[in-house]
Amino acid sequence: DVVVSRGTRLEARHLMLLASVGVASVEVFAPVRIGLIASGDELVPAGDTCGPGQIYESNSTGIRALLSPYAATIKDYGIVADTEEAITAVFERASKENDLVISSGGVSVGDADLIKNVISNTGKISFWKVAIKPGKPFALGEINGATFCGLPGNPVSTYVTAQQLVLPLIRAMQGEKNADEHPFRLNATLTQAISRRPGRQEFLRATLTQSATGDWHITPLPRQSSGVMTSVAQANAYLIVAADTTQLE
What we know:
- The protein is α/β, with parallel strands linked by helices.
- It has 6 helices and 15 strands.
- The protein has a 6-stranded mixed sheet, with helices on both faces. Strands 7, 10, 12, 13 and 14 form a 5-stranded mixed sheet that branches. Strands 2-3 form a two-stranded parallel ribbon.
- Helix 2 packs parallel to helix 5 and helix 3 crosses helix 4 (115-122).
């Protein structure tokens, strides 16, 4: 009989089962080599002193933590300045040393958002912008044979797109079956009405609670800006709103 099928992510339970039938080793996929790049002249590493107009770079910390369960080899290329020369140099190096390059910032429409142009000139952009909120400016492409994921600069947008778009890609690159399956979902009763503009599927940060009778209730947090990471830290669920929805009672 098949004990563990191809495409299974090996966890403690699988390793114990394999050992219990005398299997000492199995063939596995190689760890995905991932390069992290943060873009922006305004960024300062956490622990340094922030000057006027500067903010702490937090996206790489969050991405690295999200990747920790996936046994990937991660190399951090730090913060790159907003010049085409600097961006081109770091992407040339990172793309030749990794299977996947993940950047944050520099993929929107501002004057300093140069990453998309650099990738277009030296590789290719497969698509840019997705109909989700937060996270619209997400970009996917390729450079020197490495896959490129360009995440938005706002921290909540980075966090959501890394979870919803990048992690399934990494699972697929590692050979996992059903890599795009969604995590646990359930229906819950809203505790307050929601009014919104249609057009994008929205991931509202929310708190999910269960009553004494077993009923689930969900409450969206009040501050949903893509720059407010406290809403992510306080949430224990996403309230997923369909793109065409304007009102939920």
